[in-house]
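This entry is retained here.
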Amino acid sequence: MSRLCFSLLALTLSSLATGIFYAPAGAQKRSAKVSISYTSFNMPAALVWIAKEGRLFSKYGLEDELVFIPGGTTSMAALVAGSIDFAQLTGSPGAYAYLGGAEVVYLAASMDSMSYQIIVRPEIRVAPDLRGRRLGISRFGSSPDVAARMALRKLGVNPDDVSIIQTGSSPERLAALLAGKVDATVLNAPFDRVAQKHNLKILADTSKMGIPYFDTGIVTTRRFVRANEEIVWQFMKAYVEAIKVFKTDKSYAKTVASRYARINDLEAVEEAYNYFVGKIPRYPYPTLTGMQTVLDEIARSNPRAQNVKPDDIVDARFVKELHLTGFIDNLYKESVRK
């Protein structure tokens, strides 16, 4: 029986193997089993998919269990409960959990700026038209929630004037928008392209707003790090190699992403890859500036966030060590040699 207490929410996608591997089966003796959750179907989420499908976790001595848990707050609850070991999440669920007393810590960030678009129905022509309308997010306290509120303010609209409702993951938010259950939502590639093909439009692109943000990263608990530091090193090696694969093998990255996201629109996948490949860094340092943005936004409703420093929720030493020792750069040299 799986040790995941959130098994009813978790969707194991091991059946979606691409048949292309970056490490042979049994490259190292499997020394530990780790469970990793993801909550989104966008391109940055592909990093853990690539690590699994390319057998990179196995390469570094880990037996992986990759699960989908809808909603960052739900995934964070599973992490804090010890039901999963690592989560690929944005900064806001962890910040909220820390304020609630949880010992969470972000080890890496693969996106350090907002990448959401506000997608609206055709009758919404300008931002003020959103007043009194319904805007769909995943869960309250999630990154889509925080991003929507920040973007609305940038557009001169008070979030309190918009009915923000929970509608689920990216595919569910898009479906709700198409069905007219909401008037707007926040999405990112490749779902923005799919939305446009259904006569929906992009009202605003947060990537053009110049907002530093802890968009996507790896989070665990300090308790887990203290008890399993070697496992953390193994995981981080697999993760940074997955970034290398993403950045250097476009065809493979697109294949994995399209299968997990269940997107058959090759043009949308191509556009999404091109949008994100330059934004995902070779050295995925957890961004302090981005986390500060998250904390500043949370402080609007929870003043205690003003007393939290980004360093309280971030630990860059793993990425720093892999960077300064040349481990990451050597991965790219190996790619050139091949």
About this structure: Residues 117-208 form a domain with the D-Maltodextrin-Binding Protein; domain 2 fold (CATH 3.40.190.10). The CA atoms of residues 30 and 61 lie 5 Å apart. The radius of gyration is 19 Å. The longest strand covers residues 104-113.
